[in-house]
C-alpha cells in the first residue's frame, strides 16, 4: 500500500492534528513540507490540490483530501480496528464524538486561534498584540471551558469514557495556548479540565508530534 | 420506534438544516419549539440538555445530541438505506462529503452569518448596519464562491455527482443571503453556482421547510 502523503508543515496546528491521528492509528506517512512562510501554499502546484490554499492536504492513492477535521474522520474510519479506536464503538458513541468535534470546530477553535494569532503571529510580523481582542477571546474560551469542566466531571473524555477524535482535535491549539501564549491557567484552574489535559497531552503520539517546538 | 424530537424553532438556520435532513431521510419527527426571543434556550431545563444554550438539540430515545452538523451525520448514518443517501456510497465519497461539510462549517458559515447579522439582526435590535463589515464579508463569500464555481464546473454537486450533506448544509444560510439580505447576485453571477443553487433549493424537502417564513 502506498504511503499516505501529508502536505503541510510541522508547526501548523492543522498539520499536527493529522500527524497525531496518523500516529495514533499506526499508519505510515510521509510529510511533504509546504513552506507557508515562503508562500508555497499559494502556488499553482499546491492550489491544484487544495484550491483554498490551506494546510494540510493529504494524498492517499487516488484520493486527495483537505480540511484536517475531515481528514482525521477519514483516517479513523479507514483504519478502524488498527491502532487507537478514535470514533467510539457504536452509532451513539460515534454521534457523541461528532458532537464534541463540532464543539471544537465551531466554538473552541476560533477564539483559541485568535489568541494565538495576536500573541504569537502578529508580533512576528512586526505588529502589536491587541490586548482587548485577546481578553475578549479569553472570555469566550472561559465560557466554553466552564462547560467542559462540568462535562469532564462526569466523563473521562469529551465524548464518553474513551479517548476520541474530539479530544485529539483539541491538542494542537491548546498546546500552543499553554506553552507559548502563557494561557495555561485557563486549563490548570479547572480541576477536571486539568486532569483531562494532563492525560491527553501525555499520549506518546502527541509527544512525538509536538517534539519540534516553534 | 419513538419519534425524534427536535428542540428548536422554525426560523433558525440550524434547526431548518436538521428538519430538511429528517425530511430527506423520511424520518418522523416532532418540533418542540424553543423560542430564543422568550429566552427559552437559556432556561435550566434546556441547558440541562444542551449546556451551550444553542439550537437545535435532538432527542432520539436515550440519546440527546446537539450541534446541527453532528446531528446531520448521525441521521445520515442511522438511516442509511432509507430516503435520500446523503453520505455518498463509498469511503472515498464519504470523505469528500466530510471535506465539503468542513468547508461550509469552517469557511462559508461565518462570513455568511456575519452578513445576515448586520443586515437583519442588528437593525432589529435597534442598531445600524455596519456597511464596511458587510462589504468585507461579501468579499470573503465571493472568494469562496469563486472556488465553488470552479468545483461545480467539474462536478454536479460539491462532493461529487451526488447530492449530499455538504450541499444540504448550505441551504439555510444561503437562502437567507439570497432572500432577506438581498445578496442573490453572489449566487446568480456565477454560472455553475447558480445552477447548483437552483437545483438544491428546488428540492421538495427544502421547499417544505421554508413554507413557514420567519
From TrEMBL, chain A:
Coiled-coil positions: none
All copies of domain GST C-terminal, residue ranges: 90-214
Enzyme class: transferase
EC number from the UniProt entry: 2.5.1.18
Keyword Thylakoid carried by entry: no
Keywords, in A-Z order: Transferase
GO cellular component: cytoplasm
A Gene Ontology BP annotation from the UniProt entry: glutathione metabolic process
GO terms for MF: glutathione binding; glutathione transferase activity
Family listed: Belongs to the GST superfamily. Phi family.
PANTHER family (alphabetical): GLUTATHIONE S-TRANSFERASE RHO
Protein name: glutathione transferase
Organism: Pinus yunnanensis (Yunnan pine)
UniProtKB/TrEMBL annotation, chain B:
Keyword 4Fe-4S on entry: no
Keywords: Transferase
Any one annotated GO CC term: cytoplasm
Domain GST C-terminal: 90-214
One MF term in the entry's GO annotations: glutathione transferase activity
One of the GO BP terms on file: response to toxic substance
EC annotation from Swiss-Prot or TrEMBL: 2.5.1.18
Pfam families: GST_C, GST_N
Entries under InterPro entries matching the protein: Glutathione-S-Trfase_C-like, Glutathione-S-Trfase_C_sf, Glutathione_S-Trfase, Glutathione_S-Trfase_N, GST_C, GST_Phi_C, Thioredoxin-like_sf
Catalytic activity: RX + glutathione = an S-substituted glutathione + a halide anion + H(+)
Full protein name: glutathione transferase
